[in-house]
Amino acid sequence: MQKYKVLVADDHDLFREGIKTLLKKMNNVILAGEVKRGKHVVELYKEVKPDAVIMDISMPDINGIEATKEILRIDPQAKIIILSMHDDEEYIGRCLDAGVKGYVIKSESGMELRHTIELVLQGNSYFSHFAQDIVLSRLKQYRSHKHTPIEQPHITKRELQILTLISQGLTSNAIAEKLFISIRTVETHRTNIMRKLGVKNVVELINKAAELDLV
Questions:
Q1: Distance from C-alpha of 81 to C-alpha of 55, rounded to nearest angstrom
Q2: Could you give the C-alpha distances from 62 to 59, 66, 102, in angstroms and in order?
Q3: 99 and 43, same structural domain?
Q4: Is residue 129 located within the same domain as residue 153?
Q5: C or N: which end of the chain has fewer Cβ atoms within 10 Å?
Q6: Among positive and negative, which fits the CA dihedral 107, 59, 134, 127?
Q7: Any idea of the CA torsion for 15, 16, 17, 20, to the nearest 10 degrees?
Q8: How far apart, in whole angstroms, are the C-alpha atoms of residue 67 and residue 160?
Q9: Are residues 115 and 166 in the same domain?
Q10: Which residues are CB-contacts of 6 (< 8 A; sequence separation ≥ 6)?
């Protein structure tokens, strides 16, 4: 079984211990290291080259958003998950712009964080349910002030069903069960939708769908 290395960065001991406990329960994950300061996560990333980073925003020296930018300059393929108490549009939007692959609010469940870690390690982007609501709200506000009509791509009824469920945070497995179709069929539809909308990951997909008023 492949073991993924995960680096943890949070200046609160209690949260770091909680994350480490969660990681120990994941058979395919090992702790690559832990740090308390923003500059140290960048230094340790260079050294251990983890498969993913779980990082707080508010840390000494440099914050998680700036640390994300530094890491992505070193490694554009870096997978960074933000775990933060910040649940407002400004912070989530800034993290989205910085290039994080996942965002979880600290008040959400450990299962939500675990789900995010699993998806990001598989190469997906995932913003937790609460964070998705914030992102969608932000985009809908932006869209309501935009008067230029946007050309709508041709999306089939089934693709629209699947797109709606993706925007609600459902995985391919959950969508397959809900619609009584195979996971392979869901993945085929997902690929076709992303091609039609010209996006590369789930976060971009949700953003584009909201911009086009599809969800």
A1: 6
A2: 6, 6, 19
A3: yes
A4: no
A5: N
A6: negative
A7: 120
A8: 37
A9: no
A10: 23, 29, 30, 31, 32, 50, 51, 52, 53, 54, 117
The letter for the amino acid at 115 is H
Interval 25-37: pLDDT, tens:
999 999 999 999 9
**How much is the pTM?**
0.68
Residue 205 in contact with residue 159, Cβ under 8 Å? no
Token pair belonging to 195: 């091609």
Q: What range does the domain containing 176 cover?
A: 148-211
Residue 108 CB coordination number (10 Å) = 17
The model's pLDDT over 54-92, given as tens digits with 9 standing for 90+, comes to 999 999 889 999 999 999 999 999 999 999 998 877 788
Contact 53, 41 (CB under 8 A): yes
pLDDT mean over 108-123: 90
Tokens 């910040």 belong to 86
Residue 170 belongs to a domain: yes
CA-based max dimension of the chain: 52
Residue 18 has a pLDDT of 94
